[in-house]
Each structure stands twice: as structure tokens, then as C-alpha cells.
Amino acid sequence: LRTDGTLWTWGENSSGQLGDGTISNHLTPVQIGAATTWQQVSAGALYTAAIRQDGTLWTWGEGIFGQLGTGSTNTSNTPAQVGTATTWQQVSAGGGHTVAVRQDGSLWAWGLNYQGQLGLGTTTNQVTPARVGNGTNWAAVATGRIHSVALSTTGTLWTWGSNDAGQLGNNEGPQVTPRQIAPPAWRWAAAGYAHSVAVRQDGSLWAWGRNGYGQLGNGNTTDQAAPVQVGTATTWQHVAAGTTITFAIRQDGSLWAWGNNTEGLFGTGTISPASDRQTSPLQIGTATTWRSVAIGFEHVVALRQDGTLWAWGHNSNGQLGLGSSFADQLAPVQVGTATWQSVAAGHNHTVAVRQDGTLWAWGNNMYGSLGNGTITDQATPVQIGTATTWKQVAAGYNHTLAVRTDGSLWAWGANNYGQLGTPGLAQQLTPAQVGTATTWQSVTATESSSTALRQDGTLWAWGYNGVGQLGTSTTTTQRTPTPVGTGATWQQVALGGSFTLAIRTDGALWGWGDNSAGQLGYSPANPMPVYIPMGGTPLATTSAEVGLTGLAPGLYLLRAAAGGTSRTLRLVVE
């Protein structure tokens, strides 16, 4: 196709597939007729299909299986119209079958069908277009030699036909009707300053975003705007992301690290210039009893399966909890002898819940983030109040949040952006309850923002929102918990420097906020939750001016929209 709407073909022409009225091969482009209204074309095996701007569909070439859709099995060396419909939107020509989408979102197929590649529920050939099911939400289609693939307007992927080489994306035999391909199911996600890491249900580990120090672990230091797999292991269980470093635990309890080791945060006992930029996972020690890990600005804390707590890295504010010694530690050192349930690392402070339900904190306390009623740093764990019903804790830059077993949510520390979710902007030196709800499930914190999940699966966010990291469809800072959309299927959330990742109960991974380094896993930045696909951009889009009839069926990434008093809508397609 040329920009003037003319259509040109060249190459083999034994079945008239070039459409120039001959069966002679052509070594250079020849124009097909004089029409200047061609819009889309697809070349199949010995035949061609094309759509004009008026929505009519035309085919030519080999027709022995009815793939031309003209009602016969004759061959044609010039374009022949397929029926009288003027609503065709996209067509794909395959090995001997044709599939096309109409403007109403319906899907049609014809031609060779011995492997069910038409998706009609039979293996009978069709010489005219036959409708595939009764759906009206088809967006795009592609055909192989004897199989078909289609994308719905909701982003789901469907396949049918032969599966002799696994081309349907499942382990089953041929399919005679469209069957959905399950999207990647994610189990756990972690967000660093500008990079993302997540574990899939199959145990594989994927990363994307900023990679200047090799923090993605994929063997190089090139930023990635889409998920790339970290090695080939499928035994990953837990992952944590720091500013430019990543830690992960495998199912065998071994601990691994990669990224920036300039400050010796790997915990290997040395600061080796060779590993300042560790671009692939490096096992830390030989222990196989690690359960979870949390990363602060320049310190790391981790729990073992026996409940012991270990810390290493910088200790200038006592954030390692080792007592009178403020010396940095290059290898894991046990923090006391207590048994712990969970731990969180803030910028320069640490908070943890013991197995008896008591809450303890240590490190920097300039803004009251330790919650003990003072602003004095603590080099050893100090108990926060006397309650024994603490369940889970999260630490931000200089603020802390925690959930009790009764479902109540509490916050303390800095509050300059409303990150505590309590009335006003005053800092809190002791735990203050956030609202009166008693249905909170878990909480997460980053620099000056907070998010929390309720037991009903809803997601709430508050605090700083300069780049839409709260996911509330604005960039307005929120001083109290604000719902993220209306969904009630959220399962896990992770906060990065200025972006958020969250997993739903169906295993789908979503992201919003800053995307300057590709940390959302796709191209356009967006303050609303958007689905993150595997291994590429969500959709190839085409710029379009949309009139009063509305947007043609299909998937689009919209950069801007505005409504006027006369209900005019302008959509700028990214």
C-alpha cells in the first residue's frame, strides 16, 4: 500500500495472487487496477485479501478451498468483491483460510478448515464468510498456515486450529472453536526506585525498568521497558527491590542478590569492585533457611525460617539494631535472640513484629517514625506501646504504618504530605489510628505515599501523588485513604520510588505512576491502573481522528481526551 491509497504487488503469480490480470511473475511492483482507496492488505499462500476505505473486501488468487470467499472454488487473477458488505475492518489471509473482523466487532472466517482453523466448531470448508460465534468484541486477527489467533477488545487472546507445533499456546490437540490463552499469572511483585521485579506463578522471575547497575539481573545494564526473564530458574519464591539493588529468595531457602554493591549491601563480607554492577543473580552465603528480605536505603534486613532476624549494610543511625556499635556490617549479623514474624525497612529505620504480636522499632527517629514518643535515634529494638496484637508493618522514608489483628490501621512519623492518613499534617510520635475501619488486611509504604488493602479486596492510597502514583486518576495529593478505582479483586501491592505495582486475584499485574525508566512495563505513562503484558508493548496503535460516529471497534491507548459543552470528544491516540 502507498500513502496515496494505491495497491502494488510483485513476486510469484502462478495462481494470479498478484491480481494484475495475468499469471506472470513480476520482479518489480505493478499497480493493481486504478483504485486509490485501498486501506489494508494481507498476503496468504497463493492468494491475497484487501479492504478498501469504503469497507468492502476483495480477494484474488488461488480459490480451491473457498479461501476467496466468493461462493466458489475458482481461482481469480483480479480482485473480486466478497459479498456486498461494506463494514469490513481487518482481514488476514492464511495458508488456505481467511479470517476477518467487521466494524461491529464480529468475526468471520472461510476457506480450508480440516483442522478447525475457521473456528466454526466443524472441520468443513466454507466458500463464503461464516460468522465465528456471536461475539462483537473482536479487535484484530492473524492467521497462520492452519491456525488462527485473535485479540478481543478487552485484551484477551484467543487461538484455534492446528496445534501440531504448540502454536495455540496450550498443551492440547487441535481446537475447532476459539479458546482463550490464559495471561501470565503473577504471584509476587516488588518495586525499587525505578525498576520492577516480579515472580510468576510458575516460579520464573521477571524484571523491567532502570538497569544502570544491573538491578534487573538479565546479564546487562540496558533499561528494559517490558518484562524480561531473569535467568531460566523456575524456583523463585520471594523478591525485594531497593534503589539500585535486588534480592530474591528461592524455594530452597537460598538468598540471591544483584545490582549495585558499591556499599557492600550484598552481605558477602566484601566490597568487590568487580561486583559493583552485578548483572546476574549471585548467591549470598550458603544458608538455605531464608524466608523474607526487606531493603532500606543502604541497609538490608532478612528473616530466616526459624524466626531469627539478620541485618547488614549501613548503620549510622542504628538501623541494624546491633546496640552500641554503629559500625557498618558487610555480612549478615543476627539482631538479638528474639523470634520475629515480619520486618520492614524504611529509609534509615527498621520496624518488625515479633511472633508474640509485639511491635518493635530502631534506627533514625528524627520525625518520630519509631513510634516510641520521642525523636531520639535507637540503636537497639524498642517496643512500641504494650499491644500484642500487631499483624503486619510497613516503613516509608520517615513514616511507619501497621495493621492489628482486629483489622485496624495505625500510622506515625512524618506527615508532610498526608502519608499517615490522619487528620491534618502534623507528625505523630506514637501510633495514631487511621479512620475507624477495622477491615484492613495489609499496608505498604514508600517515600511519602501509602497504600493498603482491605479484606474485601479494595485498594486504597494516600499521601504524595505528584506523578499519579496513587492511581486515583489525578495527581492530587490525598490526606486520607482514597479508593483506587472500584475494583475489589486486589491481592498484593508494591510501592516504588514514584510508581505502584499491584496484583489482582486473577494473577494479572497492574502498574501506575512514573514510567520514566519503563518501570511500568509498557510505553505511555498513565496515572490510572493499566494492564502490564508480557514481553512487549500492549498494542500496536494507529493515530486517528474520530468523528461523531465514535471510535471504531478495537483497542487503543489514549493519551488525552476532552469533552466540550456540545459533547464533542477529541481522542489523541498514542
The CATH homologous superfamily of the largest domain is named Regulator of chromosome condensation 1/beta-lactamase-inhibitor protein II
Main sheet properties? 4 strands, antiparallel
Summed over residues and divided by their number, the pLDDT gives a mean of: 90
CATH topology of the largest domain: Methylamine Dehydrogenase, Chain H
Gyration radius, rounded: 29 Å
- Give the DSSP E fraction (strand runs of 2 or more residues): 35-45%
Question: Portion of residues in helices?
Answer: under 10%
Describe this structure as you would to a colleague.
The chain has three domains: 8-181, 7 Propeller (Methylamine Dehydrogenase, Chain H), CATH 2.130.10; 186-531, 7 Propeller (Methylamine Dehydrogenase, Chain H); 542-574, no CATH class. It has 574 residues and is mainly β. It is built from no helices and 44 strands. The strands form twelve sheets. The chain has a four-stranded antiparallel β-sheet with strand order 3-4-5-6, with no helix packed on it. A four-stranded antiparallel β-sheet has the order 7-8-9-10, with no helix packed on it. β3 (38-43) and β4 (47-52) form a beta hairpin.
Task: Name some characteristics of this structure.
574 residues, elongated, Methylamine Dehydrogenase, Chain H, mainly beta, disordered C terminus, 4-stranded antiparallel β-sheet, 44 strands
Compact description:
Helices cover about 0% and strands about 45% of the residues. With about 575 residues, the protein is mostly beta strands. It starts with 7 loop residues before the first strand and ends with a strand.
